[in-house]
Each structure stands twice: as structure tokens, then as C-alpha cells.
Amino acid sequence: MTKTDQPIADVNSSYCKSKEKSIFFIGAGNVATHLSQALLHAGYEIKGVYSRTVSSAQTLADTLGCFWTTNILELVEADIYILSVKDSVLEELLFKVIQQSPQAIFVHTAGSIPISVFQGKVNKYGIFYPMQTFSKKCAVLFDNIPIFVESSDNEVAQTLFSIAQSISRHVEFLDSDCRLRLHLASVLACNFANHCYTLAAQEMDKAGLPFKYLLPLIDETAKKVHKLSPREAQTGPAVRYDQNVLNKHLSLISETIKRDIYSLMSLSIHQNTHD
Amino acid sequence: MTKTDQPIADVNSSYCKSKEKSIFFIGAGNVATHLSQALLHAGYEIKGVYSRTVSSAQTLADTLGCFWTTNILELVEADIYILSVKDSVLEELLFKVIQQSPQAIFVHTAGSIPISVFQGKVNKYGIFYPMQTFSKKCAVLFDNIPIFVESSDNEVAQTLFSIAQSISRHVEFLDSDCRLRLHLASVLACNFANHCYTLAAQEMDKAGLPFKYLLPLIDETAKKVHKLSPREAQTGPAVRYDQNVLNKHLSLISETIKRDIYSLMSLSIHQNTHD
Fold it and tell me: Boundaries of each Pyrroline-5-carboxylate reductase catalytic N-terminal domain copy (chains A, B) (predicted)?
């Protein structure tokens, strides 16, 4: 797998032109909420928002000061439609959006859906994948978030690249195969690491101690991998495969799935430390 | 399990007195290195360092400006001996240290070894457990690190509490059962989360992308749980148990243990989100 061979040198010339593009958001979830607000802040015209539910559509449209609808067949015209929805409904929605503005650029923000989802359906399309964990309740700065772009042709490439550059310092062209692996990496580093925090929170609860006591440890663990590789940064009983400690910990865990996770992760840590 | 019932009200009066105590470190690993340096900086006299290897003993003693030895039977006298060594060798070393200074206070820093390890061997003893991940190459500030203390009697409790307070704002008395669960929580939140970073690093490597692209995601994941519970903060395909995405990811993973980790963690995330 390699990065896509796109004309990066031509990209900057299209910067001003792309600011004239208007954008419509299909979806009002975590990604759509943060991305639309960042693009509005960067000077783009957000034409409207579609969501399945009135509350989501209205809440986001209110922050953007734009049109909203819950009827996918009643969109307003825009230069770019950004689909930021669950993978399972993307194709169905895409089909309906295309009918209304076949000449527009169609973009999705998913890590795991290949660009081929657009092929044969529309002429201009691309991917705009910001690699971050978004929750509506937590503000994020896009500046430092890597954005990975892929496109149907050079013109769309330039448009998407310059839009991405208007909100982030880290923009890369990347093909779909590479992006899928990147998405897997992001699930491991974020969703799985966060689940480790959840499992730890349960133990703190059982010990009658507040979760906040773990925050210095969680922060330091994240901070260390800015300086050391995570393999070098690894500490704890599993590195030495200290079975005495591992068995004491297992004796505290009654849930089968949590015991299996503990055993597998410990073995994997040990194997990775000594490979 | 409950916190131990120690006389917290009496603790502050012993602050000055405890600064007169001299300390000897058995062990020169990650914990001993950071803890001894913090205590020296706080004004304690570090009498010496023992390590199995010349290089570890000498390196740490040089930073502390103190005596060092690799012969456990040739220690110098001190008021407190802090044993910061692998769980598997602690009892054997403790036996040899006690012979030389039976009237001193003996302390260990392990999360998973109960205070009963000292019982019947010596009169004054305790636990001094700083909950943090320590690597020699990474400087840490103790100020924010929770330290958990347990002791043989009130006098030792006061001594250890005031020593802990001289380097940290978060000091608690905690019994051995509770500390073992706390240690399990720390392994989950730190060692397992860090291993998720390692697994992610391998995928980045396969995609030909630098690990540093993951840092904003890793930082945000840690930052979010300062505001939301990790369960509320959870995002990603496993929350919805989107089997289409899960199967695409599994198709990229060839190692059996990594596939099993991926499947178990995804199932556990889903169960925890919907409980």
C-alpha cells in the first residue's frame, strides 16, 4: 500500500477558489458537528444540515445558522455534499443525494469505506477523513488533527486539499487501502485504549476509589509515547510475565470476557517486549 | 474493601521529624530511580543504593551523590530501607536486609504485595506505593502522583504519610486488598492502554505512515476522560458493533493473538456501552 500519487504541487493555487465552495452536511453526529463548525469558522458557507432526527438537525443548524431538514429528498443546492453518517446507511443516502445535484462534489468522512463506493454513481467525489475521536460535548482544535484526502480527479483533489489545509496543518493524500489500515490503527490507539480506561474505572469503583486518581497515570502514559516508542515505554508485570502478579490480578476478576482480555493482553505485551 | 483506619489527624505534626530520617534504597530500577531523586530533592538524606548490577547501582548513586553496592550483605545504616525491586526477589532480599538493621523501618513500593510479607520478620514496616508509570528516560513530577500508604503502626503511618506529603499532594492510607485492586486498575489504564498504542504503531508501520500521526488522537483520548467517564467518551465501530467495519479490520490482521484481542475488545466495548 502506498500514498496516492496526487499533484501536491498544484494544490496551493486552488486555495482561494475553494473558499467560494458551499457545503451541505448529510449527518449531524459527532464528526459532522465538529467538522461543520470548523469549516464555518474557516470561512466556508454551510448551506444546510440533514439528519434523521429533528433534534440533531436543529441543534447543529442552530450553531451554524443554516437550513436544516430531516427529509433527505429536500436538500438545498451546494457545491459539496459531505456525508458524515454511519457506514451502514451511507450508500442508501448517497443514492438519494446524488439524484438532486448530480454535478456537485460528493465526499464522505469514513475511515473504512473505500472510494469505490462512489464509482459509477457520480463524476466528482472524494474522501475527507479527519483522524480524531469526536464527542459532541468535547471541543477539539482541528489545527493539529491529521486529515487524509482521496479523490476522483485532480480538480477535486485540489479542492479537498485546500479545504483541509484551511483547518489543519497535517493534510495527506492517502488511498483507500492505506486509509482502512489507518482506521484500524486509530481504533486500537483510541477506542481500545479508552476501553482499557473503562475496565480500570470498574476496578476503581470496586475499590471505592475515584476514577480521577488514575488521571496522572493516563496522562503520563499518553505523554511518554511522544518521546519513546510505545514498545520502549511499556512497564508493568506483563513485561516480565510475572505469573505471581498476573494470577493475583486474575483472582480479582470474575467476568469471563475481562479475564480473557487480561490474559491475552498480558501475553501479547510479553511477546511484543521480547520479540 | 475499605481504606485503612489510620490517624490522619495526627499526621502533620510529624512532618519535620520525618525529614530527619535517612533512607537507603534496595533496587535501582525505574521506581527506585524516580522516587529516590524526588526524596533527595525534598530534603531527605539518601544513604545509599543497592542493585544487582554495578551499572544500575553506580548510575543512580551518581545522581544522588551517595554510597552504592552490589553486595546485599554490605549495606550502610539508615532509618528507612525502601525495597523497590521485582516482586519475585523481594522476600529473599528483605530477609538479608533485616539481618543488618532490625530496628529500622522497612518499606516496599509494590502494588501487588500485601503488607503481610513483613509480618513476623520485623517490627516496623509499611507500604509506599506511587501510582505512576516510570521509565528512566522520562522525567516525572511527583506533585500530582497519588501515593498510597499502609503501615505496621501509627508511628510508621505518620512517618510514611509525611514523607509522601513532602513529594505529592495526593496521599492516602489504603489496605493491601484495596491496593491490589488499585494495581490491577493501573495495569489496565496504563500498561494495557500503552499496549493498544503498540498494536496501533504496528498498523501505522504497515501503512507506511509515521506513528506521530496518532499522537493527537492518543492525547485527545486521554484528555476526554478528564471531562467524561470513559464509558461516555467511547466512540468507534465497536460501540454500534458494526460488523461490516469489524470484519474489514479483521481481514487486515493475520496474527491470531491480535485477532483475538480485536474481537474480544470489540465485544467488550459493545457490552459496556449497552449495559
Answer: 23-107
Is the CB of A267 less than 8 angstroms away from the CB of B257?
yes
Contact A178 B208 (CB under 8 A): yes
Q: Is A16's pLDDT higher than 70?
A: no
Has residue B53 got a pLDDT over 90?
yes
Q: Does the domain made of B8-174 have the CATH classification 3.30.830.10? A: no
Residue ranges per structural domain of chain B: 8-174, 181-274
| DSSP state at residue B77 | P
pLDDT of residue A88: 86
Q: Give dist(CA A108, CA A115) in Å, integer.
A: 9
CB contact under 8 A, A186 and B137: no
pLDDT band (50, 70, 90) for residue B9: very low
Task: Give which of B246, B240, B243, B220 is closest to A189, Cα–Cα.
Answer: B220
Residue B233 in this model has a pLDDT that exceeds 50? yes
* Cβ contacts from A onto B, under 8 A: 341
In this prediction, residues B3-10 reach a mean pLDDT of: 46
Selected for mutation to probe chain A from B31, B221, B241, B261 (highest A CB count within 10 Å) is: B221
A188 and B206: CB-CB below 8 Å?
no
Read off the pLDDT of each residue in B174-183 and give the average, rounded to a whole number.
97
Interacting residues of A202 by C-beta distance below 8 A, sequence separation 6+: none
Residue A97 C-alpha, separation from nearest chain B C-alpha, in angstroms: 23
For residue A235, list chain B residues with Cβ-Cβ distance below 8 A. 30, 133-135, 190-191, 194
In chain A, residues with a C-beta closer than 8 Å to the C-beta of B256 are none
- Does domain A181-274 fall under CATH 3.40.630.30? My reply is no
Q: Whole-angstrom Cα distance, residue B121 to residue B77? A: 18
Could you give the CA distance from residue B190 to residue A221 in angstroms, rounded to a whole number?
6
* B120 min Cα distance to partner chain A (Å): 22
Q: A124: which strand partners?
A: A105
- Per-residue pLDDT tens digits for A156-169: 999 999 999 999 99
pLDDT of residue A12: 47
